[in-house]
Amino acid sequence: MQQSWLREFTADWQLDGKALGTAVEYCRYLQQLHSYYKNPSLADVKEWLQNPPGASVRRKKAQSVRALGRWCQDAGIDYFSFWKQVPLVTEQVTPQATVTDEIYRDVLSRCVTVRDKALVELLWSTGLRRAEIERLCVEHIDFAGSFIIVAVSKTKRPRVVPLSPTASRALRRQIGKQETGSVFKMTGKAICCSLQKLEAPSAHAWRRGWAVHSLRNGVSETSLKSAAGWSSGAMVSRYTSALSSELALDEFKNSWAR
Fold it and tell me: Which of 53, 171, 208, 215 has the most CB within a 10 Å radius?
């Protein structure tokens, strides 16, 4: 395997709007595979997949081979032509911590400072990642248009996230007369500590809760993907899979009430 292939694979992955971190992780696994086998066959790959004990790691390793194999096929390169035969381990879906409206109100009732209230309202209104909150600046907020511009996201592409009236008011109080610069002046670790002091779930639990709450309230999957910065519906399913039955019940009840 030529290193130039991995560089081009990574570049094409980003051009497709996919997360750079995923491509980097795939390349790390692929380099590991080639440190064991100079020209791996399907049997070699299957043997390599048996080594780690965790299903999640085995699945990621298999996905890396399939991703490069698909890319080689599209690029007309005769390599990993067996990629479709590489088995994907089925991961057991377990319920993940997800913030509900009740949890949101409970945490909000424990907020004492203006900053804590603004942080909780922002998490519930936008589902921003912790790193995105850390980088949020005053100049990224458009109060007139009721949206936030996430200048640097996980996919390295900017996106627009709608801002609720409640979160907008909380952010105005937090910013005060400040015209530029960091909104919260907090590192990712400090944000995590603030949530722990409030006995609040993690930022990712808020992100999942925001996604589920949005779908329940009629936001389309297309709009949710755009606001969340997801390139496909797979992430929507990943965040809401544990509550899919409940969401289906809500949607049918709403349809009958019309």
Answer: 171
Q: What are the pLDDT digits (tens) for 130-161?
A: 999 999 999 999 999 999 999 887 767 789 99
Q: Tell me if the domain spanning 3-85 has CATH number 1.10.150.
A: yes
* Beta carbons of 7 and 47 less than 8 angstroms apart: no
Torsion angle defined by CA atoms of residues 56, 58, 62 and 68, in that order, rounded to the nearest 10 degrees: 80
Which token pair is 169? 């008011």
CATH superfamily of 101-256: Intergrase catalytic core (1.10.443.10)
Chain mean pLDDT for the chain: 88
The domain segmentation of the chain, as residue ranges, is: 3-85, 101-256
Beta strands in 69-152 (DSSP E): 141-142, 147-150
Reported pTM: 0.64
Structure tokens at 24: 């980097």
